[in-house]
TrEMBL record:
Record bears the keyword Transmembrane: no
Source organism per UniProt: Levilactobacillus senmaizukei DSM 21775 = NBRC 103853
Stretches assigned to the HTH lacI-type domain: 1-60
Gene Ontology MF term list: DNA-binding transcription factor activity; transcription cis-regulatory region binding
Pfam families tied to this protein: LacI, Peripla_BP_3
Gene3D superfamilies, alphabetized: 3.40.50.2300, lambda repressor-like DNA-binding domains
Keywords: DNA-binding, Transcription, Transcription regulation
Protein name: Transcription regulator
Xref: SMART domains: HTH_LACI (SM00354)
């Protein structure tokens, strides 16, 4: 946090409060954005795969389905974008970015589009009209004929549940997210919810009463956990799986306010392992997703098409690992 504070030019207290989503802090959006971006960059390890030279300087448009403001509420997508931009710089590609799926700013002579997030069929068609070279990050579009880079959610969720199970925690709650594409034409189902339901059913332990939904924000995590606490009281499950870090941070706040000890009474496992996982109290155990690799792999898929003339669509599935910290026993 000292490194972040020195780089941005703010106090240590300001960094701490911003990373803990303290909305009572009076700080500009520009400073807030800087703090999150610097935190993510300092958290990176260099991706060491040797670049393959491309015969031309490619022009790549990065389409981020989040707005600039919303990107700060869920660092997962910002982390992917930063990793993608870093890889473009390493390969000497010209990268331009557009937020909230705004395609009007994309140049007509763009060589490829890398789309981060979730997109409806209509949005995919609109991008394909600009260039046939599309790569999707965090959405599987292989069936539609496009390169895709995705996370292996099924194995990750199985490992989470196996970990709780091994600790004797059979009654496991879930806080997950729901959202829509920016054109509101496609409801996006959280793949971690589907994997959780499937895995718990295999254990004969799925209970829909223990499942709570939010919108991936810190506030929705807080509200979902408060609902669970009021609903179950002393019968609150001893373990919760939360499908992203902002929601998990909100859940921790609710548990703290109600005097429920973590992890002594309730264990909390999060997902994505963005920077904030290490700046909340207690520090969050989380499934680490290599967001830099997700972004880098997308750029490499574009380069591969130009280097090798590949036309067959390819899907890259990136594995995860569980990072245990203080929020779990």
């Amino acid at each position: 946090m000292k490194d972040i504070a020195q780089t941005v030019g703010v106090s240590l207290a300001t960094v701490s409060r911003v990373l803990n989503y303290d909305r009572t802090l009076s700080v500009s959006e520009s400073t807030r954005k800087q703090i999150f971006e610097v935190a993510e960059r300092l958290n990176y390890s260099k991706f060491k795969r040797r670049p393959v030279p491309v015969t031309k300087e490619l022009k790549i448009a990065i389409v981020q389905w989040y707005s600039k403001t919303k990107e700060l509420d869920d660092l997962y997508y910002m982390s992917i974008r930063l990793g993608l931009e870093k890889r473009c710089e390493e390969r000497h590609f010209l990268a331009t970015r557009t937020f909230h799926s705004d395609l009007s700013s994309i140049d007509a002579d763009v060589d490829a589009i890398i789309a981060i997030g979730k997109f409806s069929a209509q949005q995919v068609t609109a991008m394909a009209q600009l260039t046939p070279n599309l790569v999707f990050v965090d959405q599987d579009q292989l069936a539609e004929g496009y390169d895709s880079v995705v996370t292996d959610f099924d194995i990750a969720v199985k490992q989470v549940i196996d970990g709780f199970w091994a600790a004797g925690q059979r009654r496991i709650g879930l806080l997950y997210g729901t959202e829509w594409t920016t054109d509101e034409k496609l409801a996006v189902i959280d793949p971690r919810y589907l994997a959780f339901k499937h895995e718990m059913e295999d254990h004969g332990a799925f209970d829909p009463a223990l499942v709570f939904s939010g919108d991936y924000t810190n506030q929705s995590g807080y509200e979902a956990m408060m609902t669970a606490i009021k609903q179950f009281g002393s019968d609150l499950p001893a373990a919760f799986f939360v499908t992203n870090d902002p929601m998990a941070a909100g859940a921790l706040k609710a548990l703290h306010e109600q005097g429920i000890a973590v992890p002594q009474r309730v264990s909390v496992m999060s997902f994505n392992d963005t920077t904030i996982a290490k700046f909340v109290f207690p520090e969050l155990s989380s499934v680490h997703v290599d967001t830099e690799l997700l972004g880098s792999a997308a750029v490499d898929l574009v380069a591969d098409r130009y280097n090798n003339g590949r036309t067959t669509p390819q899907r890259m599935t990136i594995g995860t690992k569980i990072v245990k910290r203080d929020s779990t026993k």
